[in-house]
Amino acid sequence: MATTPVPATTETGPPPARSVLRDTAFLRLWAGTTASGLATWALPFVLGLAVLHRELGAAGLGLVLAARTAGFLAAVAVGGVLADRHSRRAVVLWSALAAAASAPLLALGLGRSLLVMTLAAALAGAGQGACRPAFQALTAEVVAADHRQQANAAMTMAVRTSTLAGPTLTALLAAFVDVGTLLLGIGLLWLVAALLPGRGARAAGSVAGSTAPAPRASLRAEFVDGIREARRHPWFLAGLCALTAVIALGYSATGVALPLISRDRYGTGWVMAAAMTAYTVGALGGALVTARRRPRSQGWSAFAGLALYGFAPLSLMLPVHPAVVIAAYVVAGVGIELFNVPWFTATQREVAPDKLARVSSLDFLLSYGLAPVGLALIAPAIGAFGVTPVLAVCAAACFLVPAAAALAPTARHFGRPPGPRAH
Questions:
Q1: Given a cut of 50, is residue 207 above it in pLDDT?
Q2: 399 vs 245, 253, 325, CA distance in Å?
């Protein structure tokens, strides 16, 4: 899901003594990233309110959300290339401004023109997709290498907190303002994301001192170059395969099955709500742990955490007490951040700085891009084979694919092992 610089051995000078949470540059970046994450999460929820208020039909909601996903997928790869080619701060600025511009267009089309809303949603998705790899690369420019794991943990905690508190806050606001005003509020969040982060410390040596810079390759050629960089890191390819499998199969299966089981087995919707809340609480706990935890075999620990998501579909297979389902979702939430935070940190450490945004875009492109495919296939599979066999296959994939990925070369440490190497 849910990625710069050369290894720490090339850093000069002692690492900063103070916590990253007291660094103004990081706090500005953190606030901007949090605003973008909250805006990204809020849009489907606010559009769902529009359906409840009969300002948008269910089919229209599906079309608008599909357009946003299409915009995201179309822009994420281009955004990665542009963030490596130009200033990452500038890419964040213009992509977030594009997403901000989509908000008044969505409000304008609400209840009037589905075409306008669809085009605006595609623009919102494009802004979101273009800024994600730029934000990941900018984190590595702003934060010193020794503090990046703490910084990535702080980023993910902000996202999880927004997910936990967001529905309540939005529901409260909806009691006082209409859906159009809420959409404009999303635009304001994107403005914060655009304007608040500062410039990173990317060295200008690659462009300075050259009176006749070499001509740029095409966007396609530079993206392919990013794929080549990703292929240089077996641990990254293995981790991306494992993450994509868990999202496309595990997330998709539980996303479809949890509402059905909550209704049919337990006869209430509160099990679904409690499980989703438990997952977010667990993820917050996992992020807190990874902010300080430095296991010797970081990669193996991360893959073990990712495999913990398998307990979520496993708990839905069996006629267990609802508390068991809720506990399984807590464990899954903890595990996903035991993977995410070291994964982002290792990518920032191991990938060549001038290719980091492109490699990060590949991460988002596959993990996010295949999720809709999984959702599209899981529902028919449940209809054809039943919910239990489908959940069994998806749970097995969640356990086995990360275990297989952990066997890849360099997977144990997410890169070269720390410390001096024997010759």
A1: no
A2: 10, 14, 17
How many CA atoms lie within 13 Å of 185's alpha carbon, on the beta-carbon side?
17
Q: What pLDDT sits at residue 208?
A: 36
pTM as predicted: 0.82
Which one-letter DSSP state was computed for residue 248?
Answer: I
CB atoms under 10 Å from CB of 231, counted, come to 10
Q: What is the distance of C-alpha 70 from the center of its chain?
A: 16
- Sign of the C-alpha dihedral, residues 110, 116, 118, 123? negative
Spell out a b/e string for 385-396, using b for 16 or more CB atoms within 10 Å of the CB, else e: eebeebbbebbe
- State how far the Cα of 46 lies from the Cα of 182, in Å rounded to an integer: 7
Distance CA 17, CA 5 (A): 20
The pLDDT of residue 215 is 60
Least confident of 6-20, 107-121, 288-302: 6-20
Nearest residue to 186 via CA among 168, 199, 173 = 173
- CA-to-CA separations, 310 to 277, 336, 370, 377, 401, in angstroms, rounded: 17, 11, 18, 19, 10
Residue 364: strand, helix, or coil: helix
Tell me how far apart the alpha carbons of residues 371 and 387 are, in angstroms, rounded to a whole number: 19
> What are the backbone angles phi and psi of residue 372, rounded to the nearest 5°?
-60, -30
Q: Is residue 23 pLDDT above 60, yes or no?
A: yes
Reported confidence tier of residue 115, pLDDT bands at 50, 70, 90: very high
